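=== RUN LOG ===
request id: a7f3
mode: sequence -> structure
chains: 1
length: 297
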Amino acid sequence: MIIAGHTLGTPGYELDQALRLFKTAGLDAAEVIYQDDYAAAIRPFDIKSAKQAAASASAEGMPIVGLTPYTTSINDVDPKHWQEGVDEFRACIEAAQEVGARKIRVYAGSWHPGDADQAAHWEQLRTALQVLANDAAAAGVILCVENHFGTMTQTAADTARLVREVGSPAVRVLYDQANLTFTHDEAWTEAFEIQGDLVGHVHVKDLVFKDPDAPFRASDTARVKAEERAVMSRVVGTGVLPWTDILRELVRRGYDDVLTLEYEYRWHPQDLPEPAVGFAESARAVRTMLASIEQTQ
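=== RESULT ===
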């Protein structure tokens, strides 16, 4: 397995500094945010920024294996906004080629309780991914649709349904069990039953509940606001997620690819040790789990 650090965990760092931190923490690779106004990121529609990122990755000996855009308009029923989202993903695919990344995180549009005309938004989303799948396949890139609140694929069931409807090997599931857990959707065993054959990428993080009975709510897509949170972020291996069991099932199913430590220090720094500590501790925990699984094979 390749254990990558996510620049979500390095606010306040320039990209080259984040890559250096990942190397010092014992990580193998990096997943990099694709967004304006964030230092440890590649700027959208800016190929110079991608070239600089590629140079930094080479200099630090820390390959960039994934990009994380925050585009949500690919399910928009307004043609102009929909096209803007498609165009940003196309630019992200170009940036991925420039830096050598093989995976791009996909938000399945924007969707919240109370939104109207689900069928029309779903059709826009599916069409966008069918269009983009051709670009991704030509570039040797996989679009990975995340199990994520505030989108049309909060649940494993909806994520699997979308990926199957798109029907392209260039569109896979980004499995995020922590997201499924704190939204009170599928348990890990059920998630594998539903989408296990479609997993193309994995995000690894951990949490504890402040109130396990509190209903999930989030008015944003990228993060849960402080006043809405019923969980606290934790270093991997110190929360409620059974990561040894989850990793064992991934191995059993033949997954031997990237595990990205999605260390949420950008959103919830009050919950977590500083990045240099948290990434190193998380990486050690995951490597220990993988070693124990290997011994029992």
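=== NOTES ===
The mean pLDDT is 98.
The chain is about 40% helix and 15% strand.
=== END ===
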